[in-house]
Amino acid sequence: MSAKARKRRSPGEGGCWSYQTKAGERFRVKGMVRLPGGTLREVNKRGFMTKTAGLEWLADAQSAGRKGEFIEPSKQWFGAYGAEVIDGLRVGPQTKASYKKNWRLHVEPYAIAQVPLAQLTGQRLTAHYRVLEKSGRKDHKAGEGLSARTVRYIHTIIHGVLGQAVKDGLLLRNPADAATPPTAREAKAPEMHPWNAAQLAAFLGWAEANSQSYALWHLLAMTGMRRGEALA
Questions:
Q1: What span, in angstroms and rounded, lies between the C-alpha atoms of 33 and 63?
Q2: Which of 39, 61, 132, 213 has its CA 20 to 30 A from that of 227?
Q3: Could you tell me the maximum CA-CA distance found in the chain, to the nearest angstrom?
Q4: How far apart (Å, rounded) are the C-alpha atoms in residues 98 and 55?
Q5: What is the pLDDT of residues 84-109, one digit of tens each?
Q6: Which pTM does this prediction carry?
Q7: pLDDT tens digits, residue range 17-33?
Q8: Residue 143 carries which DSSP code?
Q9: Phi/psi zone of residue 224: left (φ > 0), alpha (ψ -120 to 50 degrees), beta?
């Protein structure tokens, strides 16, 4: 194809180029975007898995700029921002404690916590979820994988944090929308098979003669209390 036949990009339209990382080929985009005040600024963003994804992001940014809606990329780290958002949530104490625990165990110790908000992509989040599924446990089975149900719950927390980043004007759109967590079907809780009356009676008969916790087992059986309620 001759040089004249090639389609030329308009000045300032920008482009997308590949570069190599330890994890393989990635893409970066560069182009001019109009800020809300009317001035033009060159934007650079790295970490795209495909050239198409990079060019789509740049096209969205330039379209937002023409509408006066462009949000400058945030350099704030994902881990620190998420901890701040969770700390300020208006939710129940147990829910907040659960969010904090999962963030502390399954986001902050990983490299993704040091990624600037502006460099987060759906592909990066998906890769993080796969790591958690492979070796994310931190309890007595440390190093084994988290369940699909837990990883999907972590995705829900991350999606909420990044949704707040969009509301705060730090992101143009939520990168978690483009991530691929475990499906709802994969994360479905296993079916419960409670004891029948005969099995329960046999256990309580054994516990009355052999267990110091018989009163607790009897209370649970007769009231249907949850474990935490009975222990309290």
A1: 9
A2: 132
A3: 93
A4: 38
A5: 999 999 999 999 999 999 999 999 99
A6: 0.64
A7: 999 988 889 999 999 99
A8: T
A9: left
